[in-house]
Every structure is written in C-alpha cells, then in structure tokens.
Design a protein that fits this description.
The structure is a single chain. This protein is about 25% helix and about 25% strand. The protein has about 400 residues and is of the alpha/beta class. The strands form 2 sheets. Strands 1, 2, 3, 4, 5, 13, 14 and 15 form an 8-stranded mixed sheet that branches. The protein has a 7-stranded parallel sheet with strand order 6-7-8-9-10-11-12. A hairpin with a 4-residue loop joins strand 1 and strand 2. The longest helix is centred in the middle third of the chain and has 15 residues. The chain is globular. The structure holds zinc ion. The site of zinc ion has 6 residues, from loops.
Length: about 400
C-alpha cells in the first residue's frame, strides 16, 4: 500500500509552460501517464526528483522531420527521445502508396509519438535522385484524402514540397494539394525552396496552413531578392493566419535571412529541425541545438519554448493533449540545463557563429516514463556515393543569400 499521491514529482525546477503562463520555480506531479498538478509543495510522490537549477517544460514537439526509413531521407524517430522531443511529426515522407507500411512498421513500432502529414505525391519523398512531383501523375488528391480519412488519429494534413522537386508543375501540384487538404478539412504544410513561386503559393494558402523553411537562403524565400524586405505576400499571409515554420534541415536555415526577417519584426511561429539522413550527417543536430540558435539570435527562452511546445500543438489541433502541463494532458516533459560557454553553431550556408548559451538535455519524460539522454543509440543507414550529391549541392550553393 503506497501513501504517495503521485507516481512522480519533479521538485524545484524552473517550470516554463507558455500554455498556462507559468514561468517560475515550482513542482510538477505526474500520475497514470498524465500531468496531475503544477504548483508549490506537491506530493508526496512514489518517486521524487529534485531538479533544482534546471528547467522543466512540456515535452517538445518537432513539427518537421523525416521518420520513414523506407526513404533515403528517413531516420529512426526514437532518437529524438534523447533530447526532449516526445512528439515527432513526419513531414510527408510518405504518400498514399507507402503510408500504410510507414504506419505499420515505423509509427506503431516507435516509443515516441509519431504523427504525420501525408505527401500529395503518392510515393512521398523516396530519394534525392528524382523529385517526387517531376511527374505530375504522382499528385493524387483523392487517394491522399482517402488515406488521411482512414488514419485520422495520426494524420495532420497534406504535405507538398515546392521547388526543383515539382519540375514545371509547381502551380498544378499546389492546386491538387489544396484540393486534398480541403477534402479532409485539414491544413497543408508547404516547403518552399529555390524554384518555388513563393508569392503565388502564399496567395493560395488558407488560415492554419504552414510554410516551412521560412529562413532558407537559397532563393525564392520570404525576402524580396532586390532589397531583402519581406515579400508583401508574407505579411498578408501572416495576417490571414498562415503559420511560418523553421524546418532547419540541410538547406533551410540562414543566419542572414533570419536576422533580416527579425529586422522586419518577423519571427517564426514554430521552430523545427527537419531532421533526416542528410541533415543529421552534416550538422548532427537535434531540436535543442536548433532552439539554441534562436536563443543566440536573441529570442527569449520562454518564446523558444512556446515555439516548440504550445505553438506546434495548436498548429496540429492537439492543444489540450500535447505541448502543455495542464492537468490531464499527456505526461510528456523535457528537463534541461542552460549551459554557458562558447558553442559553435553552423547554419546551412556553412557559416559558424559562437553562441554563449546552449540547451543541454537532462531528462525526457514520455507518457510518464523517464528517458535519459543516450538511451536510444543513433543508428543510421550507410551513405552511398550518390548521397553525396546533396552535400556537394549544399557546398556549391552556400554563398548566395
Ligand atoms: Zn523536410
């Protein structure tokens, strides 16, 4: 017979929960895989951890990554549990053809919670060798809508990449993605890279749609090429309720573009990694290191937490359950330290800056179960000669803004 009120109590941590406006030293109590309470002098707990000097926030939600190992891009999502992420969102690595296998072999097998945007291309994003929409016949609104409808518990909307991977079909493919998203009444996530008709795309988007790679610097991004001002369509889209996501990846984050955007008071709604086989190879990064880049750019810690917890939870319509420490929510937490020193942080234009602070993971809790950093070894597939084409491309195109 236990006299404990809770299964676990984290004591004396600096709790930051933007969903409730909490930003102070207090306790968090868990019971039955749920948040039970946030407040002073809670307890007793069956297990108690004193986390004095550390920060405690809701488990992180990484809005953009690639978690289907049947694609040359995909990696095992469970490695994210090493660094505070409790919900990993797949950004369209699969489409209607391979989504069922993704669900069966990867989503169901994962310890981390995996949710997904389904690609408008039936094959998803299988490879770097051929763009998934270079043949427009792969764009299938009805089948995409059907798969989403049949998997509503984990499907969040429709993904489309706009750029070289759409060949000449950018506008047509976008129309099909919108058709699919409207048919299931869910948002769309749109990747914009060089070759995208970004002003046209922005004019088509609806409230709740998400633009990812908002600080990419290889052309056709959010800044005007002439004077580096924000495109007027960017401000219009934001007013309408379109969201802007970081999606760092292997080519999606430029210090220069981020700083220019900040000068125009344009900050991202959500901060995500776009972690995949290529971005992890070059940058070996994780969500806390991308968050640290935004601390370095001057974004306050509570806002960085907001953009990796509450904001992505709201963007995917799961604000009651995820990204919050409200009683009854999933017992997902991230405990971390703010380490001081000198830390090199590189953008995807191969420019390194030295940051004075870094977020250092201490403990992840997923559905009430504790995971120490390093619990999930990173095992990556081998790289082939053709995989290096992407790294060569990144190096060759590193310099233009
Ligand atoms: Zn991506």
């Amino acid at each position: 017979m236990s006299s404990a009120d809770y299964s676990l109590v984290l004591r004396n941590g600096h709790v930051i929960d933007p969903s409730q406006g909490v930003n102070r030293v207090t306790d968090v109590a868990l019971q039955d895989g749920r948040i039970a309470a946030v407040g002073d002098s809670l307890g007793p707990g069956l297990v108690e951890k004193d986390v004095r000097g550390k920060y405690v926030c809701p488990g992180l939600i990484d809005l953009h990554g690639h978690w289907w190992e049947g694609s040359s891009w995909g990696i095992d999502p469970d490695i994210c549990l090493n660094h505070g992420v409790t919900t990993a969102i797949d950004a369209g690595t699969t489409g209607f053809i391979n989504f069922p296998a993704f669900r069966k072999t990867q989503v169901s097998a994962a310890t981390i919670r995996v949710l997904a945007f389904v690609n408008i291309s039936g094959v998803g994003i299988p490879t770097t060798l051929v763009g998934e929409l270079e043949d427009i016949r792969f764009a299938r609104p009805r089948e995409t809508g059907h798969v989403i409808e049949s998997n509503r518990d984990i499907c969040l909307g429709v993904k489309i990449r706009e750029g070289a991977m759409t060949g000449p079909y950018g506008a047509e493919a976008l129309g099909k993605a919108i058709e699919a998203a409207q048919s299931v009444r869910l948002p769309m996530m749109v990747h914009i890279t060089k070759g995208a008709d970004t002003p046209h795309i922005l004019r088509q988007l609806r409230p709740g749609d998400i633009v990812t790679h908002c600080f990419q610097g290889r052309g056709d991004g959010i800044l005007s090429p002439d004077d580096a001002r924000l495109l007027p369509e960017v401000s219009e889209a934001r007013k309408l309720g379109v969201l802007f996501d970081v999606g760092h990846g292997a080519g999606g984050f430029s210090w220069d573009v981020a700083r220019k955007a900040f000068e125009h008071f344009f900050f991202p709604d959500t901060i995500s990694t776009d972690l995949h086989r290529y971005s992890i190879a070059r940058w070996a990064f994780d969500l806390p290191s991308v968050m640290s880049k935004f601390l370095h750019l001057g974004v306050p810690l509570a806002d960085v937490i907001l953009k990796t917890t509450r904001a992505p939870a709201m963007a995917i319509g799961r604000g009651d359950e995820l990204g919050t420490l409200k009683p009854g929510a999933a017992a997902d937490l991230f405990v971390f330290e703010l380490e001081e020193g000198s830390f090199p942080l590189e953008d995807t234009h191969l420019r390194t800056e030295s940051a004075a602070r870094r977020i250092r993971p201490f403990l992840t809790i997923k559905d009430g179960t504790s995971v120490e950093p390093g619990s999930y070894p990173v095992r990556l597939r081998e790289l082939y000669e053709c995989d290096h084409d992407l790294f060569r491309f990144i190096e060759q195109t590193a310099n233009p803004r």
